[in-house]
Amino acid sequence: MDLRDFFPSIGGARIQTVFRTLGFPEKVADLLGGMATNATPRDVLRDPMYRRPHLPQGAPTSPALANMCFYWADCRLTGLAKSAGAQYTRYADDLAFSGGEDFDRRVERFSAHVAAILREEGFAVHHRKTRIMRQGVLQHLAGVVANRRLNIWRADFDRLKAIPTNCVRQGAATQNRDGHSDFRAHLEGRVSYVESINPEKGKLLRSILQRIEWP
What we know:
mainly alpha, two-stranded antiparallel ribbon, 9 helices
């Protein structure tokens, strides 16, 4: 399940409350809340959700503050999943519930309960992005295939593999099409990510990476 307008839906007042709960004096909490939120000018975007102070997507402070604001929703969803024989996982605005045959039989009704809890907590489900993925289909979440074991999308792996391969053949400078200031570190990071998901595929990419002659 996907949350609609996750960061913009978390308003400035809620962020100030978080800082007060952490023990900051009211004036300091209000100041920190103002520093951590943003309001889009009316002449730039007319959506009222963005015109009021909200967590800006992409700011380094937003994920941690959003997780604090979502704490009670996480607790309630964890309890709901446990009662249905499922496990609950969340990454930012992506929610996943996984279980066996018992959960499969009640999953449609279960999703309605999830939406109700989120609405009570001040969030909304992007219903068109809700997916029920059973064993017979490709199960994917947050860019990762999650059927019998975690894996990388085949197309993503092939595209990534082509970059260091072409670096070996044609030189590293020819493949830095996005102009990364430290292209070597960029590739190292992407290969490390694959290694954390699928060590076997990561080992293959690492072996190619080690053959690159860097300037």
